[in-house]
Each structure stands twice: as structure tokens, then as C-alpha cells.
């Protein structure tokens, strides 16, 4: 099929829930993507923080190929070696002892919410427990995940939500305290808000919420589906805050293209929440998905990916700060590690339009929130790639100077 045939056929048959760009990607190599016309792009999106290792990692691909030749799926009635390896590797990397594998991020959040409700139920044998979530948060599109997503636009048409969810201001400890009562079972938040506009949590806020949770036996659920897996410069962003969550959700880069997510819990939650019969999934944790997870985590260690992130991220930050200072329609820059954003003055330039222009200049970017141009490169990006990105971005922005 040529590009037009691909786009027209897909458009005709897909339910129109995405406004896709008129590009069909064909293959990738390293941090570059190639479309069906052979045009090359520098990828600063990584399939939305998924392809951490870049395209065509030999070890990762060989592991998947040989597993496909053996067996890809068995169901959760049985054990498999990839399941054993992935669960050992992910619990070690995440610093939490028990894991449940899912097929997506939203499903990891669903499981986390169920674990929190069950923990509270086991304590007082009552239901109707409450969850505190954050404004401008994003946790996914299924009902549980949507119910704790702090963007009423996403929720409005689908009410009622799961109920008993209250929203506090992110980085506003007093607003969290004000919502706590004896029915509160969990606080859920992203360590770095992604879709909402790249807002890292303040250290004082995270520690304050942790203390508040400890004092009231409330579970702290950190959603690191986007900011986790090395992107922040540590394996999980929470590790930079000197605290630990009770429950952690992961997805995106943990499978590096194979759809897989997980939620992990500490001993306290493992001992008194979900038991056989409470939760399940057919595909979750199958041998193929777990081969991906085990390979990804092995490569992270062998290639010292977090060290690499710490080496290149300050360079990206500096380049973006220089760019922010050079254009009157860019108000600033923020982020953590290789999860960064340029903040636009949307009265002058819309970052969504910049994404389109960037594609024509061979640069793949996405937006976050209403006013942020988001940078989520593969974690293996080099300083030379960052220079190249900066050049293509400047050529892009030149078209938006009025
Ligand atoms: C992407 C994302 C999700 C949802 O993950 P899906 O795999 O799309 O269901 C949840 N939380 C955060 C922080 C995310 O970035």
C-alpha cells in the first residue's frame, strides 16, 4: 500500500477517536523513524514515552523472536520462566516486593484502585472509601482510571464515575490535608504530571503527602507510567524524593513496544488486600510480555541507561532553556530528566501547530496540556541527537514567528 492508500483505508474503518497526523511510519532505527515515503524523522516522542531503548535494539528483538518461537501465551493458571524473570527483575527495579502484570497503564491504575479499596475494606469491613486524586492529573481512559483523572473535560460525557473521588491541587499540601477524613483510603498522583503539562512534584509536597498518609494509614499510589523506567534520571522518579509509595503503577517503557503494564505493592498491601478471586486478566503477564519486561530491565542494567539519562538530560534542559529565551512566544521550560516541556504563550502560538510544522522538518514531538510542547525522546538519545533536534526545532519555530 502507498501512503495515501494506508491513510484512506485506515480512516474508512477506524472509529474516529484520534485526529492522526497524515504520516504512516514504516520502520525505525535507533532514535530515527522512517515513513512509507522513505522520509526520515528524529523521534522526540518515543511512541509516548514507550520506546526507551530506541528502535532495533538487537538483544531486545532477539529475546522476543526466540520467545515467539517457543510460546507466547499460556494464561495465568500456570507459571513460565519469563514470568519468573520479569517479576523478579521488576520488583527489584521498582523497590517494591510484589507485582501484578497488566496489559496497559489504565489497567494498572484499575488494579491499584482495587487493591487500595480492598485494603481499607479489610481494615474496617465497610465500603464507600474515598480516594484523593490531583487536579490536572492523567491516569487513563477506563472508568476507574478516568474517575481519578483531574480533567473534567475527559470525564463529563461519561458520568457517573466510580464515585468517592475528591480532587486536590497538585503541589498544594494544604488542599490534600483538607480532604482527608476517616473514609480516605488512598491518595493517587503522578510523581511528574505528564499529560497535564509536565509538572514535577515538589519534594516538600511529596514528603508531606507521604507523612499525611503514614499518620492516617492512607495508601500512597504513585503513577509512574510516564515518568518511571529511567526517564527521570532514576529508575523511578520517587527514588529522588526520599520516600516510597505503597503502590506503584508502571507501563509504557516497561514493555518498550509490547503492551504491558503492572502495579506493584509493598508488604503491607500484599498482606492485606487482593487475594485469589479478587482480580485477574487473561493476557496479563504472558510469556511474550514478560520476555519484553525481563529483556528491557536487563538492557537497562547492562547499558547503564539511568547514568546515560543523567548525562544527557542536563544538556537537553540547557538547549531547551536557550530556545525558550530566544522566542517571545515561549514562556519557559520545565521537566525532570528526559521528560521536558516548553511552555507556549498560546495567544501567540499554539504548540499543536508547532507539532505539525515539526513533522515537515523531520522532527516528532507531541503536546501536553493546553500550552506545552512535550519532549520524550528515547532514553538512548545522544548529545549530537539533541543538537540535531535543536536545529530542526529552530527551523520549525522560524515558521511561527509572526
Ligand atoms: C499513559 C498514561 C496512563 C495510561 O496508560 P495506557 O497504557 O494508555 O492505558 C496512565 N497514567 C499515566 C501517568 C500515563 O502517562
Strand order in the sheet with the most strands: 4-12-11-10-7-5-6
Low-confidence stretches: none
* Principal-axis shape: globular
Query: Main β-sheet: number of strands, strand sense, barrel status?
Result: 7 strands, mixed
Number of strands: 17
What number is the mean pLDDT?
Answer: 98
Assigned CATH superfamily of the largest domain? Type I PLP-dependent aspartate aminotransferase-like (Major domain)
The proportion of residues in beta strands is 15-25%
**CATH fold-level label of the largest domain:** Aspartate Aminotransferase, domain 2
Structural class: alpha/beta
Q: Specify the helix fraction band.
A: 25-40%
| Cα Rg | 21 Å
Helix count, per DSSP? 14
Structural domain tally: 2
Give the cofactors and ligands: pyridoxal-5'-phosphate
CATH class annotation of the largest domain: Alpha Beta
Report the end-to-end length measured between terminal Cα atoms.
39 Å
Can you tell me about this structure?
The protein is built from 14 helices and 17 strands. The protein has 402 residues and is α/β, with parallel strands linked by helices. It has 2 domains: 3-56 and 304-398, Aspartate Aminotransferase, domain 1; 71-302, Type I PLP-dependent aspartate aminotransferase-like (Major domain) (Aspartate Aminotransferase, domain 2, 3-Layer(aba) Sandwich). The strands form 4 sheets. The chain has a 7-stranded mixed β-sheet with strand order 4-12-11-10-7-5-6, with helices on both faces. Helix 4 crosses helix 11 and helix 12 packs parallel to helix 14 (383-398). The radius of gyration is 21 Å and the shape is globular. The two termini are 39 Å apart. The site of pyridoxal-5'-phosphate (PLP) has 16 residues, from helix 5.
Amino acid at each position: 500500500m502507498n501512503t495515501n492508500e494506508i491513510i484512506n483505508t485506515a480512516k474508512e474503518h477506524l472509529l474516529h477517536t484520534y485526529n492522526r497526523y497524515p504520516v504512516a511510519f514504516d520502520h525505525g532505527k535507533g532514535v530515527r523513524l522512517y515513513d512509507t515515503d522513505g522520509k526520515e524523522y528524529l523521534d522526540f516522542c518515543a511512541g509516548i514515552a514507550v520506546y526507551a531503548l530506541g528502535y532495533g535494539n538487537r538483544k531486545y528483538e532477539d529475546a522476543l523472536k526466540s520467545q515467539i518461537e517457543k510460546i507466547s501465551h499460556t494464561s495465568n493458571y500456570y507459571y513460565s520462566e519469563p514470568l519468573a524473570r520479569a517479576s523478579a527483575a521488576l520488583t527489584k527495579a521498582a523497590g517494591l516486593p510484589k507485582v501484578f502484570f497488566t496489559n496497559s497503564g489504565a489497567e494498572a491504575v484499575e488494579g491499584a484502585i482495587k487493591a487500595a479499596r480492598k485494603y481499607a475494606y479489610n481494615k474496617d469491613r465497610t465500603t464507600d472509601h474515598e480516594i484523593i486524586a490531583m487536579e490536572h492529573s492523567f491516569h487513563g481512559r477506563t472508568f476507574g482510571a478516568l474517575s481519578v483523572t483531574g480533567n473534567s473535560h475527559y470525564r463529563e460525557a461519561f458520568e457517573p464515575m466510580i464515585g468517592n473521588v475528591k480532587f486536590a491541587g497538585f503541589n498544594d499540601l494544604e488542599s490534600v490535608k483538607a480532604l482527608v477524613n476517616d473514609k480516605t483510603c488512598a491518595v493517587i498522583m503522578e510523581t511528574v504530571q505528564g499529560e497535564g503539562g509536565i509538572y514535577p512534584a515538589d519534594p516538600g509536597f511529596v514528603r508531606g503527602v507521604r507523612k499525611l498518609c503514614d499518620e492516617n494509614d492512607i495508601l500512597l499510589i504513585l503513577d509512574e507510567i510516564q515518568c518511571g523506567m529511567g526517564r527521570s534520571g532514576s529508575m523511578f522518579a520517587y527514588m529522588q524524593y526520599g520516600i516510597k509509595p505503597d503502590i506503584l503503577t508502571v507501563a509504557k517503557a516497561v514493555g518498550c513496544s509490547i503492551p504491558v503494564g503492572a502495579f506493584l505493592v509493598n508488604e503491607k498491601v500484599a498482606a492485606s488486600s487482593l487475594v485469589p478471586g479478587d482480580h485477574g486478566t487473561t493476557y496479563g503477564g504472558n510469556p511474550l510480555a514478560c520476555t519484553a519486561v525481563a529483556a528491557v530491565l536487563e538492557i537497562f542494567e547492562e547499558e547503564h541507561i539511568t547514568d546515560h539519562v543523567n548525562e544527557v538530560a542536563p544538556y537537553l534542559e540547557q538547549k531547551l532553556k536557550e530556545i525558550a529565551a530566544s522566542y517571545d512566544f515561549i514562556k519557559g521550560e520545565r521537566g525532570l530528566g528526559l521528560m521536558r516541556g516548553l511552555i507556549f504563550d498560546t495567544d501567540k502560538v499554539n504548540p499543536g501547530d508547532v507539532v505539525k510544522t515539526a513533522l515537515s522538518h523531520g522532527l516528532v514531538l507531541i503536546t501536553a496540556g493546553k500550552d506545552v510542547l512535550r519532549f520524550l525522546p528515547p532514553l538512548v538519545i545522544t548529545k549530537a541527537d539533541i543538537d540535531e533536534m535543536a536545529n530542526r526545532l529552530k527551523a520549525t519555530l522560524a515558521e511561527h514567528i509572526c
